[in-house]
Structure formats: structure tokens, C-alpha cells
Amino acid sequence: MEHSQEDSGQGKNGSNVSNDDPMQPRAAREHKTFLYIASAGLLFLIAIPFFVGEYYVSLASEILIFAILTSGMNLLLGYTGLVSLGHAAFMGVGAYATAVGSSLLGYPVWFVMLASIFVSLLIAYGIGLLSVRTKAVQFLLITLAFGQMFHAIAEKTRYTGGDDGMTNIPRIDLSFMGLDADHDRAFYFFVLICFVIALAILRLVVDSPFGRVLVGIRENEKRMLALGYSTFPYKALAFGISGMLAGLAGSLWVQHSFFVNPHIMTWQMSGEALLMVIIGGSKAFFGPLLGAAFYVLAKDFLSDITEAYLMFFGLLFVLVVAFFNGGIAGFISRVFNKFKSPSGKDGQ
Amino acid sequence: MLIFLMAVGLTVIFGLMDILNLAHGAFYMVGAYFGYVVFQTTDSFWISLAIGPLLAMALGFLLQFFVLQPLIDRGRTAHLDMALLTFGLLFFTIGLFDLIFFETLGLTFMSIDKPAGLGSYIDIGIPYPTYRLFVIVLGLIVALAVWLLLDRTVIGAVVRAGVDDREMVRAMGVNIYVVFACVFALGCWLAGLAGVVAGAGLSIDINMGVQILIPTLVVVVLGGLGSVKGCFFGALIVGMTETLSQAYVPALALFATYILLAAMLIFRPQGFFGRAPKTV
Predict the structure, then answer these.
(1) What is the C-alpha to C-alpha distance for residues B48 and B50, in angstroms, rounded to an integer?
(2) Would you say the C-alpha torsion A160, A126, A82, A247 has a positive or negative sign?
(3) pLDDT tens digits, residue range A75-108?
(4) How many helices (H) and strands (E) in chain A?
(5) Under the phi-then-psi rule, with left for phi > 0, alpha for psi from -120 to 50, and beta for the rest, what region is B204?
(6) Where are the domains positioned within chain B?
(7) ipTM passes above 0.95
(8) Closest CA to B113 of B161, B25, B9, B43
């Protein structure tokens, strides 16, 4: 799952043609591994609601929703190398668009969902166009600024309930399948479908030439520029797609929790999402999913003991950044590689 | 002026050492909480003002010397790694203080009493709180001191030389790690000082570190990362923007600051007084 090495290696040699043949089987093998992991994971996810209680099903929905958000963020963080502290804003845009459309304007939820995804894509793309001109720390600050702007708007807008937010948001109507989405199990499957679609799209993006360019930007933006790629549109589009997934996550989140308030747009929220990505492992495709699962479960467990769960996450975050650059996923693949070939390359 | 104190600390650390210290808010909290503890035991504002920031300073020194510097030496110089790490630290501090002061001790509202003589109003055309005047004067003195220290003394020269060429400074017999740790500690001391001052002017709570961090970042960006002079004007601009927008367009009060930040980053990312960015 770690594309970085082969990609940078390819660029360094500058002799892509001769490299092509040995590369091909490896890519195919990787693809196969990916399919194995994905289908095993999917089976597991489908099985969950049949074995655990209602509460944990609802928790599982939460995990999947956050996984959509964090996987989207990872397109920026892990693949393109951009850290955004404003992603909660797009989640908020998706959430508010859904809430306003279904609760205030009365459109059917499926239509509102599509619309809110589209809206978050547009807004994120627009903001991406402005933001990606800055680099590194400036990028982090500018996304923070935009994120806080949206938070301020949400807090000041009377129409959407200001600081209190809105309640009684309907869930999607699944009655055509004979299901009632108000039941957490049925809703879980709906979230799962959205999750699979979202990750499939993301996988296609990552595997496409477009995704390769993004990795190239992360590894060495100057070289990409020298190769004749104008990197701005690539980064802006990556930002847009990432924001779109955040919007989808937001849209599912309001349906999951039946309410929305400006809190989901604060930068602490973006920070927590960032935490999930880093803890899970930003270099691996499924890292953010692992991170989200770990985060939600650990938070649920810890908040029984103490309100101050942030303390543990902060500490964990520091340790992961300082010592385990790959997060959980990096750790797993390192252990896995050790079994496969003791002399194998290090995951870093 | 509070924000100005914060911003000077942040800009010193960033400008001289290239570390975006998001944990700055955490050191601010350390200052406020420890100042409160000192105040409770000694019952004197002045003692807590003197001692409170010292803990933040010590922690800053340890953090830089034992955690950040080794990481930088291992080749993890990326700004983002440092930003993320200190960000985690901020979360950690918030959680820790929540646990100690709120859950264990059950304190919800904390404040340091203003010293006698600074609790009243002074007439300068309009009644103006003496304490605010004190904060302004304090801020100016500190800013001047920091600027003099870094720009006009041998110590400052060593620090600036260390930023440009670390190896050369070491070759001349200076332990640059200690110097860097001291600079970091100085920045943290400023944050701690701002914390104690805030503890007396406002109240102390869990969110204070996060709340002040954003305007501080705006000020630092406006002024140009690393410029003490820029901080001063940045703080003025942010303060004016906030007050004016609150007075004339209250709906945009929060908004205006962020627009300022975003516009600045788009059109002049190096700030008003920053050096042109070095090619990375």
C-alpha cells in the first residue's frame, strides 16, 4: 500500500522504461493484496450488526462516518502532503446543507444528500484554489482561517439556529427497501454503502494518474513543476475531493445524530480528525479507518472513566508523531513485512 | 496587549528557530494555572506574576532540549511534524488541567485577584481600568526588553548566528543547543507571563489556551513570522479590527479577523515586516 518508494524511485532513476517491467507485477501484487484486505474488511463490517448490541452498531456507524472524513483528509495529508486544519468546515457545510434542505425546506433526504455533497465539493474546490498557493505552515494557517470563518457564519446565522443549531433532522427514507432508517442497524448498512462508495472513489483517485501526480507533489513539488505539471490545479482538486468526502461525512453525521450545531465546525474538530489520521497512519490507504475506529472506541471507553480523555489522545498523538511515523497501519505493515521477508525494506 | 505578549513569544520561537509552536497556548495555560496556585498559597499578585511564568519557562526549556531538538537532529525538521507534535501537546495539556483542576479539585471558576491599586479606574478623559493600563505598560516594557536582548546584545547575536549556521557557532565554542533551549524557554516565559496577567484580568478556564491561540497566530502572520516589530503592529491591527467590527458590524465581529488572516496569507504570506521566504 505504500506507493511512496516506488514513485520516488521511479522519478530518481529517470529511466521509467526499463523499470516498467519489474514494476508491473509488483503493482498487480499490491492490487491483489489490496483486494484481499478490502474484501476481508468488508465482510467483517457487514458481519458487525449481527453480533453486537444496538449501542455498538450505532458506534460502528460513527466510526464509518469519521472514516469517510479522515480518509478524505488523508488524500491531502498522506498522499499530497498538505495538512489542513479546516476540514471540519466542510463537514459542517455538508451537515448544514443536509439539515437546511431536509428539515427547513422539506426536500427528500436522498436529494438533499447529493446536493450537499455537490455543494461541499464546490466550496472546498473554491477554497482550495485560494489556499493551495500557500505552502506548509501557511497552508495550515489559511485552512484554519477559512474553517473558523465558516464556524463564525454558522454561529451567527439565525436561520439555522445560531449557536444552538438545529434538531429533528430526518434520516434518509429507506422504505423502498423495506427498511426503516430510524433503526440503527438499518442506518448502519446505509452508512456502510456510502462508506464503500466513498472509499472506492478514493481508491480510483489514488490509483489514477491524477493520484500519482499528487504523490509526486508530496515527494518533491519542485520536480513536478520542472516536469511540466502545474501543481496548483492538482492540489486544488485534491482539496475539493477531500472536502466533498468531508461533506458526505457531515451529511451522514446529522442523520446519525439527528441534530447539528456549530460545534462540528470548530478547529478542535479538525484537530481531532487530524489526530485520527495520524494515529491510524497517514501513509496507508486504510490507516484513517483504523485511526477512526481506534479513536471512537477509545473515546467511548475513556469517557466512561474520565472527561479528560483529550489528555491521553494528546499524549498518544505526540508519541505517534515523534516515534511511530506510520501510525497503527504502519506498525501492522512493518510487522507483516518482517514475517514475509526478514531482509525486507523498512516501511519508512 | 495580552495577545501581543503571546505573539512576541510565538514569533521569537518561530522566527529564530523555525518551529511553529502550537503548544504556545498550553504554556499560556501553564502560566495561568500555576500563577493561580502560587496566588492561592502566597496571596500576592506580584509573587505569582514573578513565579508563575517560571514553570512555563522551565517546561519549555525541557521540551526543547530533550524532545524537540533530538527530533530535529534525527532529520525530522519538517515544519509540519513540529506543528503536529506541539498540537498534540496542546490537547494533552488541556486534558491534564481538566483532570487536575476540574475533575479532581472541582474548581470551575478561578481568578487571580488584582493587586491593590490596580483594581480601580483612572480618569483619562474616560474612566479607564488601571489594570489595563498596567498591562499595556508591562507589554511595552517586555517587548522593548526582548527586542534589545535579541537585537543589541551578544546573546542575541549568538542566537541569530546559530539560526544561520549552527555548525559554525558550535565550532566557535558555543553550546548552541542550550542557546536554542533558552530561546524556546524565553518564548514560553512570555506565554506564561501572558497567562498570569490574563488570570487576573479575565478568568481562568480550560478553553483559554485555545481561545487565545488563534488571534495570536493572526497577529504573528500579519506582522511577519519572526518580527517583534511586526508583532506590535499586528496586534494593533487585530485589536482595532476586532473592536471596530464589533462596534459597527457586530455580525461580522468574528469574521473580520479571519478574513484579515486569509487575505494576508494569499497576498503577502511573509507579513508586513517579515523577510521574504527563503527558498525551501
Answers:
(1) 5
(2) positive
(3) 888 788 788 888 888 888 888 888 888 877 877 8
(4) 14, 0
(5) beta
(6) 2-201
(7) no
(8) B43
Structure confidence at residue A344 (pLDDT):
41
Distance from CA of B254 to the nearest CA of A (A): 6
Chain segment B23-39, per-residue pLDDT in tens: 788 888 888 888 888 88
In angstroms, rounded to a whole number, what is the distance separating the alpha carbons of residues A78 and A213?
A: 13
AA letter at A90: F
Q: What CA–CA distance (Å, rounded) separates A199 from A42? A: 11
Are B262 and A130 a contacting pair at CB < 8 A? yes
As to burial, measured by CB atoms within 10 angstroms (0-12 exposed, 13-18 middle, 19+ buried), residue A179 is middle
Residue A222 inside a domain? The answer is yes
Q: Which of A83, A148, A316 sits opposite B258 (nearest CB)?
A: A148
Q: What is the pLDDT of residue A10?
A: 37
Tally of structural domains, chain A: 1
Answer whether A155 sits within 8 Å of B254, measured CB to CB.
Answer: yes
pLDDT for A175: 66
- Is A324 domain-assigned? no
Low-confidence residues of chain A: pLDDT under 70: 1-27, 136, 161-162, 174-179, 181, 306-308, 324-326, 338-348
A chain contacts of residue B214, beta-carbon cutoff 8 Å: 144, 148, 267
Distance between CA atoms of residues B59 and A280, nearest Å: 29
Residue B110 φ/ψ, nearest 5 degrees: -130, 145
Residue type, A241: I
Chain A residue numbers with beta carbons less than 8 Å from the beta carbon of B79 are 136-137
Residue A62 confidence (pLDDT):
84
Is the distance from CB of A274 to CB of A77 less than 8 angstroms? yes
Q: Is A326 left (phi over 0), alpha (psi -120 to 50) or beta?
A: alpha
CA distances from B255 to A85, A116, A120, B169 (A): 17, 23, 20, 45
CB A179 within 8 A of CB A186: yes
Contact assignment for A321 to B81 by CB distance below 8 Å: yes
The verdict on residue A305 lying in a domain is: no
Q: Determine the structural domain holding residue A252 and report its residue range.
A: 28-266
- The pLDDT score that the predictor gives to residue B124 is 64
Q: How many angstroms separate the CA atoms of A78 and B245, rounded?
A: 39
Least confident interval from A195-199, B91-95, B246-250: B246-250
Nearest-CB residue to B92 (from A140, A155, A311)? A311
Chain B contacts to A (CB-CB under 8 A): 20, 67, 71, 79-81, 83-85, 87-96, 98-99, 102-103, 210, 214, 217-218, 221, 251, 254-255, 258-259, 261-262, 265-266, 269, 280
Would A153 be classed as within a structural domain?
A: yes
Contacts of A315 in chain B (CB under 8 A): 88, 92
Tens of pLDDT, residue by residue over A215-252, are 888 888 888 888 888 888 888 888 899 999 988 988 88
Task: Report chain A residues whose CB lies below 8 A from the CB of B280.
Answer: 135-136
